[in-house]
UniProtKB/TrEMBL annotation, chains A, B:
Keywords on record: Aminoacyl-tRNA synthetase, ATP-binding, Cytoplasm, Ligase, Nucleotide-binding, Protein biosynthesis
EC class: ligase
Protein name (record): Aspartate--tRNA(Asp/Asn) ligase
Top-level taxon: Bacteria
Protein source organism: Nonomuraea polychroma
Name of the coding gene: aspS
Amino acid sequence: MISRVMTAELAEHAGQRVTIAGWVHRRRQLKSVSFLVVRDRTGLAQVVAEGDLPGEENVVQVTGTVTASSQAPGGVELVKPEIEVLAEPGAPPPFDLYRPVVPAALPTILDHAPVALRHPLLRAPLEISAASVAGFRETLDRLGFTEIHTPKIVASATESGANVFGIDYFGRPAYLAQSPQFYKQTMVGVFERVYEVGPVFRAEPHDTVRHLAQYTSLDAELGFVAGHRDVMAVLREAVAGMLESVRRRAASAVSSLGVSLPAVPAEIPAIHFTEAQRMTSSDEPDLSPAQERWLSEWAVREHGSEFLFVTGYPMAKRPFYTHPDPARPGYSNGFDLLFRGLELVTGGQRLHRHEDYLTALEERGEPVEPYEGYLQAFRYGMPPHGGFALGLERWTARLTGAANIRQTTAFPRDLHRLSP
Amino acid sequence: MISRVMTAELAEHAGQRVTIAGWVHRRRQLKSVSFLVVRDRTGLAQVVAEGDLPGEENVVQVTGTVTASSQAPGGVELVKPEIEVLAEPGAPPPFDLYRPVVPAALPTILDHAPVALRHPLLRAPLEISAASVAGFRETLDRLGFTEIHTPKIVASATESGANVFGIDYFGRPAYLAQSPQFYKQTMVGVFERVYEVGPVFRAEPHDTVRHLAQYTSLDAELGFVAGHRDVMAVLREAVAGMLESVRRRAASAVSSLGVSLPAVPAEIPAIHFTEAQRMTSSDEPDLSPAQERWLSEWAVREHGSEFLFVTGYPMAKRPFYTHPDPARPGYSNGFDLLFRGLELVTGGQRLHRHEDYLTALEERGEPVEPYEGYLQAFRYGMPPHGGFALGLERWTARLTGAANIRQTTAFPRDLHRLSP
């Protein structure tokens, strides 16, 4: 390995001659003195030099003496440098990566993602995203969940029908999975508590700031619940663990983006769907984006919480595997979690009796045959269970305040974009 | 949550009246007394009962008094039980899940995966798989790697051409990604050290015991290496971390399968490709399965190691992005890691200079255009770097001695199988 000190640790080496390595983040050649700012994965370091210096995005290795400097990032700089260029770029970057504010519009950024993401403000959401996933897994591991990997190629476009990508599977038609829903429920029969972090695919024909054709879904499912509130309690733990991990693992990304991390109440406030309707003077069977925003603001005002559960969505608006509320049959044991004005998570208790599945499919006029594999799990005995799915990019966007979900993933896929 | 004690903790509650919940693993009704064995995610517990009892795979909740019994698993059993059935199966399982040896052939197991995987011996490889991935991430997190999520839908079938699945992407042709190779290299420019655990897709037209159409790839890539040996050193750490995690997190799966976990030498023995040729009296430009087996046995014999690196594969047999050995230009800085007779990992140092990529593509008669997005990373300055990819299912198969890779994943996809 190239023997080097990371820039974040430079101050610990004051007075020593050390080597750093990274990219030339900025070159400033003045009359009497010149500066290089070198960027590595931990931060920036200033080098004081003379003469002609390599330009931005040259990959360099710099050996110099660590010297105190109140002007430099981290309070130290490298002086008397020997600079070696490890790789020369073939062209200057499409925009200056050293500007404190990104001097480019989103299409330019996305077209040049391989270099644009080197900008500290553009890579920061990806750091927050990685830290969030680590916290999700950490929490569920602690709670006895087992990680699973399920098929992304499926035989039928069952779960929601529309918006699936077709694929040529050895000459047979197949589809990209829109969610691991059926598989994670099935695996409750094996491990009781399972999670999966993986890609899901939606052939979303609308070009919006909220939708991607591929996104990362954080899925969990657990058995032996008494009802949907047990699922909500686990979700509360997962979200708290994600935020704690972001605080611990992505502190510099949080601070450079100026992200305010929400507190998670010990119990997230929850209102029933009918109550939400009443409060927003609506009789529609679903909540509009405007209602979601209003309810979110209400939760902040009344409960000091940026999170709000809405429970008991009408059965007619939930998928066939949703468990009805035994006390109010037209309503479900399904819930949404709203966060900062938007639905972040959908979840609920599922049906668990084989005959209930047969009845639910029949009532919706759906054939049983495409669900054969899935229904096996219930035919052979399944406990009361439920789960939830959280879209990673949507989470990161709400957390960082990104105006467009495309800023929260390295190489977004949408109606128009298939590269880089 | 259903308030219960896990069966593995039952012995701690001797003398108390407690509730357990799970599946009826086995029912034995004798003349004077009957037994239920209840299975939950932590193990088995015996219940002593009377009269008619629910049959296998009923989901039950049992309240009883914990009593010492030298005959029972864990040394205790539940007596004076009250049994509540939470869900009744619609049919008996296709084979007895309580038999110590699985009484079914692979096709039956795969067709009935939702219930078959409940057999402790069939779920064990999945526990080892989950523990392995946790150890992989844990190790790379500790070494300063960042987790990434890359596109599984790509614009061109570049990396190896053949064996790709075509997809209809909003009316345009696209392909399922065969590996995150290009993206993980690109992200070295952003985070220096990255990893991804995710699905990859190969339209493998051969029906073998070693190939799947979808598998989980454990990918890592790191910058600022002095050469491929730095990559090999990180891989050694990752493999050691995976095994340590399996030992810690999947102890009962390891013991029920009788898996012998290999030791990882502080330095895994490595031989050059030309040496491997000489030792096996071959002049072929690649190693055959028989040669790989012979070399593995040699490493056990000579070095007491079940792992063996073969380095310096001929350039002609490696992909265009492979870095040549500066001292022996016809040979590469690429390596394979053999484990128990089979290639487990492929890796190496990559080219990092933009002009080297242009030359490499030209020499292979390949157009530059389909690689535009990828080449951006190098155009804007990339450090010397390298990485590796490890197939999770192949790893689990070698570790557990599974004869068929389909035994190491819950719902395999292959030439013939698209469900469940």
